[in-house]
Amino acid sequence: MNVLIVFTHPERHSLNGALLDVMVAELKAQGHEVQVSDLYAMHWKAAVDRADFPDIGPDERLKVASASSREFAADGLTGDVKAEQDKLRWADTVILQFPLWWFAMPAILKGWIDRVYACGFAYGVGEHSDRRWGDRYGEGMMAGKRAMLVVTVGGWSEHYSERGINGQIDDLLFPINHGILFYPGFTVLPPYVAYRVDRLDEARFRTVADELRERMRTLEATSPIPYRKQNDGEYQIPTMELKPGLETPGAVRFALHVGESKSQGE
């Protein structure tokens, strides 16, 4: 299996750096091929601007989606973006690793998404009509690939529980899991989240490392989050609302879009 890890931390000699080493070592021990995109070490350009679209005229108004679509179709995107797209094509599994900063991913990782997820590559694909709203949410360029998040958090797990003051962790990560990974077609695995990392002692680090090794060993067997696919008939077109009566009892908001778990092979 080919695994791409997008590593997002400004300090390589950090807890996140140590966890990266744990993952890479375990994956290679299992016989997998691994590539790492270390965004800070790469000095990744995070902001989308005119420089991303070399063919745009000096007097042409920048419309990011249309410019992205045109450059992608013409193989005209910048070299750094095309290199990351090639890594995504190569990968069977993609892991986004990052510390939770201000309830979201670091800006540099969001910038990687903004630039690499070009129109025609990660969105804007498939038939768009009154019968079908494109190949997305379970379909698309990343269909057949797996993805997961590895996230470090400073707060307690209770702070991110159903009644926790910070909000439930599944809700905070929903825009990433559902909107960034599931949207272009990834099969999304439950995230691995390490809590209270600012006060992690050696014993707790060993526990976290062991848990993460186990997640790496079971990447191919872990049951994914059962998000509902857009084009399986559960959503009304064109409003894209879940059809009445399909919700899991008691489910509201984000949870509406998670169906019942299926056993492996279904």
Write the layout of secondary structure elements.
Blueprint: E1 2-7, H1 15-29, E2 33-38, H2 64-73, H3 79-90, E3 93-99, H4 107-116, E4 146-152, H5 169-182, E5 187-188, E6 192-194, H6 202-217, E7 235-236, E8 241-242
Parallel strand pairs: 1-2, 1-3, 3-4, 4-5, 4-6
Antiparallel strand pairs: 7-8
Helix pairs in contact: 1-6
Domain Flavodoxin-like fold: 1-214
Pfam family, one: Flavodoxin_2
Keywords: Oxidoreductase
Explained architecture:
There is one protein chain. It contains six helices and eight strands, in the order E-H-E-H-H-E-H-E-H-E-E-H-E-E. By secondary structure, it is of the alpha/beta class. Strands 1, 2, 3, 4, 5 and 6 form a six-stranded parallel sheet that branches. It has a two-stranded antiparallel sheet with strand order 7-8. The model has no long low-confidence stretch (mean pLDDT 92).
* Count of strand segments: 8
Shape by Cα distribution = globular
Largest sheet: 6 strands, parallel
Helix content: 25-40%
Rg over CA atoms, rounded to whole Å, is 19 Å
How would you state the average pLDDT, rounded? 92
Straight-line N-to-C gap: 21 Å
Q: With helices defined by DSSP (H or I, 4 residues minimum), what is the helix count?
A: 6
CATH architecture: 3-Layer(aba) Sandwich
| Count of spatially separate domains | 1
CATH class membership: Alpha Beta
What share of the residues does DSSP label as strand, in percent?
Answer: 5-15%
Pairing-aware structural class of the strands and helices? alpha/beta
Question: Which segments are poorly predicted (pLDDT under 50) over 5 or more consecutive residues?
Answer: none
CATH homology-level superfamily: Flavodoxin domain
According to CATH, the fold-level topology is Rossmann fold
Elements, N to C (H/E): EHEHHEHEHEEHEE
